[in-house]
Design goal:
heterodimer, A: alpha/beta, five-stranded mixed beta sheet, four-stranded parallel beta sheet, 44% helix, B: alpha+beta, four-stranded mixed beta sheet, 8 helices
């Protein structure tokens, strides 16, 4: 099947405006602005079944429909903060197929009546921002962005904004704070960004991959989009495959592809030909899946992954073979979340701090049994108490590693005098 | 010399991105600009940006403190920031970092005696499929280096040292 999102793999020059336009590029945006009402575009996206690709999986059209029409101006913000360990799909879209993403931003802006859109890129994407700035300038020059587009009354400007190294800014309210020139700390919700977003105005925040789908939906219709994928998961998805596989990378596949197919058919098998021990289905914030036959044969869609006690999330699949122990793995993930906790709410700030201390004690072989129980207990106490998902994320691998891989936390293996 | 005097074009471009009544939004891009010459934000730059945006210098300093890509201390001209997060670590990033430190004769966080290279361990850079990988941050910006071997890395170090000396 031809690529829909990673189209540069079929058409290497798709990053050039004339090539993109020759392939039908910006026809969808033109069609929307000249022949569709904003509400019709939103309805189309709603009917397509597209769900947010950043991890939460919220229906995109529904999100757009929350924007009230009695508070102005409106904003669209593209979330290009991509910072979850194991996730690297948005970067490839922006680097190699930038116009499809930008057209998605433009259509989203038209649908919610925004005349300004910001693309929030993590600071490390310095060169990606430079690419997008150049592409935006080309679009303005070509009359595809700017004032009175296609002879209509609609005007749109798109701007890039670089973050500066903070995972938390992927959380949408922290991201908005960051654009406003403040520390990236999540806001208390409600109110949600749809009502009180950027500069206190109604704002839609969408992930890059989500937006890259929009031109396809407007061009080909909701039914066509729905026909791809599975019943509860419409469309295609980019799976970022990393860890112990021979061919890590991004794989654009229909929903419903199994883990076994992803790892062995596309990913070239497991490093060192060893068995898969654990799968993290959604990056470092994922629950730890025991990689038995049932898991390997589970189709990757929103509902099926949930039956494994995990989430599809951003579909960042980290493969772990039997050469490593999971105490080491969760040491890595805890270290990450402790570093990235913004410090605003106590359960996350203190909880991640203590989880790191406890896993280090366990690694040193100190009172392994008691400290493992305590670590599990602390992780459980963080859950459901945090201002934003980061705190929750920090615990998923911890609790599930201890519950599902008890052998890796055996005092006899980790040694120590008090086992 | 203030940023506006030194880089009038850039400052104007940055300010134009945000609504006039929301100029505080410009603090992050202005901080990158302030880091351009020295690789870190000076106290004078904090004051300068604060004045430009009608906020306090504490408002600016908290941004420097919160985000990892802003620095308030001088370090090497080039910061080699190696990702050692889980996906990279599964592909040997910890060992890579150790070897790099060994070859440069520094510990993580330290700077080579010639003042050129600081080695840092950083969080995920979204290059998980191309590990071992790192980014090089300087006042000029950030560049990724992926699928790295130690040989390629040491060649890069030599090239950075050469261009760093020339700029000096």
């Amino acid at each position: 099947m031809a690529y829909l999102l990673l189209r540069h793999r079929d058409i290497p020059d798709i990053g050039k405006l004339d090539v993109y336009q020759k392939k039908g590029g910006f026809e969808a945006f033109k069609k929307a602005v000249t022949s569709l009402k904003p509400q019709e575009v939103t309805d189309m996206v709603k009917a397509s079944g597209l769900r947010g690709r950043g991890g939460a999986g919220f229906p995109t059209g529904v999100k757009w429909s929350f924007i009230p029409n009695n508070i102005w101006p409106h904003y669209v913000v593209a979330n290009a903060d991509e910072s979850e360990p194991g996730t690297f799909k948005d970067r490839e879209i922006m680097e190699c197929n930038p116009f499809q993403f930008l057209e998605g931003v433009a259509i989203a802006a038209y649908a919610v009546g925004a005349n300004a859109a910001y693309i929030y890129l993590r600071g490390e994407f310095w060169t990606v921002a430079a690419i997008l700035d150049k592409k935006i300038a080309e679009l303005e020059k070509a009359g595809l962005l700017g004032d009175k587009l296609f002879g209509s009354e609609y005007s749109l400007r798109i701007y890039t904004h670089l973050g500066a190294g903070a995972y938390i800014c992927g959380e949408e309210t922290a991201l908005l704070e960051s654009i406003e020139g403040k520390r990236g700390q999540p806001r208390i919700r409600p109110p949600f960004p749809a009502v009180y977003g950027l500069y206190g105005k109604p704002t839609v925040v969408n992930n890059v991959e989500t937006l890259a789908n929009i031109p396809l939906i407007v061009e080909n219709g909701a039914d066509w989009y729905k026909s791809l994928g599975t019943a509860d998961s419409a469309g295609v998805k980019i799976f970022s495959l990393s860890g112990h596989v021979n061919q890590p990378g991004n794989y654009e596949l229909p929903f419903g592809t199994t883990y076994r197919e992803l790892i062995y058919k596309y990913g070239g098998g497991v490093t060192g030909d060893r068995p898969v021990k654990a799968i993290m289905s959604a990056g470092a914030s994922s629950a730890m899946i025991v990689a038995d036959d049932k898991a390997l044969d589970t189709p990757m869609d929103y509902a099926s992954v949930r039956t494994l006690g995990a989430d599809l999330g951003s579909a960042s699949v980290i493969v772990i073979n039997d050469s490593v122990d999971l105490d080491w793995v969760i040491n890595k993930t805890i270290h990450f979340f402790k570093h990235e906790s913004c410090g605003k709410c106590t359960p996350c700030r203190e909880g991640t701090y203590w989880m790191l201390h406890l896993i280090e004690r366990i690694e040193r072989g100190e009172d392994v049994k008691a400290n493992t129980e305590l670590l599990h207990n602390v992780a459980r106490q963080i859950q459901n108490k945090c201002l934003c998902p980061l705190g929750e994320f920090s615990t998923m691998a911890v609790t599930t590693a201890i519950e599902r891989f008890p052998a890796d936390f055996e005092p006899s293996r980790l040694g120590g005098s008090h086992g | 010399m203030s940023l506006a005097d030194k880089y009038p074009q850039e400052v104007k471009k940055i300010m134009a991105k945000y609504p006039p009544e929301q100029k505080r939004s410009a603090v992050m891009p202005l901080l990158y600009l302030a880091q351009r010459d020295e690789g870190f934000v000076t106290k004078a730059a904090l004051e300068d940006i604060a004045q430009m945006l009608d906020i306090t210098s504490t408002n600016v300093a908290e941004i420097v403190g919160f985000y990892t890509l802003y620095h308030d201390q001088k370090a090497g001209k080039y910061r080699m920031q190696v990702c050692t997060d889980l996906p990279c670590a599964l592909r040997g990033a910890d060992k890579f970092l150790q070897e790099l430190c060994g070859n440069l004769g520094v510990k993580v966080g330290e700077t080579t005696p010639d003042g050129m290279i600081t080695v840092e361990a950083v969080m995920c850079l979204a290059g998980c499929d191309k590990a071992p990988m790192f980014q090089v941050q300087s006042g000029e910006g950030i560049a990724y280096h992926e699928n790295m071997t130690m040989d390629k890395t040491m060649e890069l170090v030599a090239a950075l040292r050469k261009s760093g000396q020339e700029v000096k």
